[in-house]
Target: diguanylate cyclase
Amino acid sequence: MEELRHVLSELVIERVGFGIFVLDRDLNVLMWNRFMADHSGKTAEQVTGKSIFASFPELPRVWLTRKVESVFQLGSFAFSSWEQRPYLFKFDHDRPITGGVDFMQQDCTFMPLAQDGEVCAVCVTISDATHASMMQRARDEAVAKLQEFADRDGLTGIANRRYFDLRLSDEFSRWQRYDGDLSMLLFDLDHFKRINDELGHLVGDTVLRLMAERVAAAVRVQDVFGRFGGEEFALLLPCTSFDDAMIVAEKVRCAICETPIDVQGARVPVTASVGAACAKRGVTTSYEALINEADAALYAAKRQGRNRAIGFR
Model:
């Protein structure tokens, strides 16, 4: 019966669908099951009795040595998931190549093997987590896309008001803590209602979309360009002084008005009024106050004839 149990035990170890190998304290291989042989291309005879690093020099030596040593010292299990370290061995996987992973993603368990109350070896199991990792990545990508859609204006593709306010709040808090410069612009298209009334809302939507593309191409990566609603837009300018903000305001105004927009057979001239504001220590007490100041500058630009940039220092 004892011999039968031994045979069955060896049979199970060889046939299970995950890798099993055993290391002594010097990281020499004591056992190597069929899963490990099939996926590594090296038989038990080739690796047993040798250092694991002699057969697989590409393994993370420092990390694996520390992991095994901790099991010897503490006598307790250790674990490493694919999320912490995607793989230990560079094994091929059988999932579609479109899954975005080069090698089998692996969960690793390190188990102490004790004799007479003392750890004499460490058994390491390798589980194929490729499918789980691909599903998780797909979920993460879907969530990221949903979040991006939630942050974007449906017509223009730029930031929506909610996201702009969040970023403005964050940048304002950073400015309060560390000082420096913080500016913003508010601008809208002059006489936009006339475009909608005379040419229709489809033309108006196209004008808004193309105008947003022009401005987006003219601003820095670190700036936040958003739609406040209707034909009103905002541009957050971190680390930007008032003088530099006025330069950006004029750049935005010129990008909008320099060329009429051709849409559905109509050539539509478009201009914009721009208001600029800069956060001032001891004066600007909230990010809403900064918005209000930029809004006041915008309406000053409108009162002074439109198609111009105005700022309050």
Q: What stands out?
A: The CA atoms of residues 141 and 147 lie 10 Å apart. The chain is about 45% helix and 25% strand.
